[in-house]
Amino acid sequence: MLHILALFSFLLVSSSHAAVQDFCVADLTAPQGPAGYSCKTPAEVTADDFVYSGLSQPGNTSSLFNAAINTAFVDKFPGLNGLGLSMARADLAPGGVVPMHTHHGASETILIAKGSITAGFISSDNTVYLKTLKEGDIMVFPQGLLHFQVNTGRTQAHFWVSFGSSNPGIQILSNALFSNNLPSELIEKTTFLDDDEVKRLKALLGGSG
After folding, report:
1. N or C: which end of the chain has fewer CB within 10 A?
2. Quick check: is 21 in a domain?
3. What DSSP assignment string belongs to 80-148?
């Protein structure tokens, strides 16, 4: 019995030493490293570091994709640093789209607040998981898999997004192919698109080469 009590006491002391810091509010004036931002000193932390109001208003959907994505990632919301979560707001006009993309750093969950959204993802064995979602529906997109959302309704749509990281990262497939100087002939060989289509997409998305 004394051995058990001694072990229990040791575990309590060890855990209390491991949890000496309640949070690590990001010091946005310092460079971000692989492990995130360094911490502000406790004397510099205020309640404002744990509050963000940037998602309160609809975004401007007058864009190429007829969609607006406003993010609450750690670079805007320093209280998220080290907590493993973040959020975003998506507003889509009728026909608007969040194009095929991935988040290498997190899984994603969406909650439909208004309208109707068709959403899906593609698994690593190329199976498609597709669903039309209505208000109140939730869908999850596993980390690293290609996924998308389209407003297939007749009215403005709006959904909330949560991520399992304070900085989930994003790579949009169309931008990765057509918004840079990757030579057109290489894109044509690796995607089986013809030269005219590659040049059209590069002109549309600002690429060259």
Report:
1. N
2. no
3. GTTSS-EEEEEEE-TT-EEEEEE-TT--EEEEEEES-EEEEEE-TT--EEEEEE-TT-EEEE-TT-EEE
Tokens of 79: 């209280």
Domain count for the chain, please give it: 1
Contact 76, 121 (CB under 8 A): no
CB 116 within 8 A of CB 158: no
Q: Return binding residues for oxalate.
A: 103, 108
> Hey, how many other C-beta atoms are within 10 angstroms of the C-beta on 64?
11
Binding site for Mn(2+), by residue number, is 101, 103, 108, 147
pTM of the model: 0.85
CA 49 to chain centre: 20
What distance in Å separates the CA atoms of residue 7 and residue 183, rounded to the nearest whole number? 63
User: What pLDDT digit, counting tens, does each position of 23-76 carry?
Assistant: 999 999 998 887 789 999 999 999 999 999 999 999 999 999 999 999 999 999
Asked whether residue 191 is assigned to any structural domain, the reply reads: yes
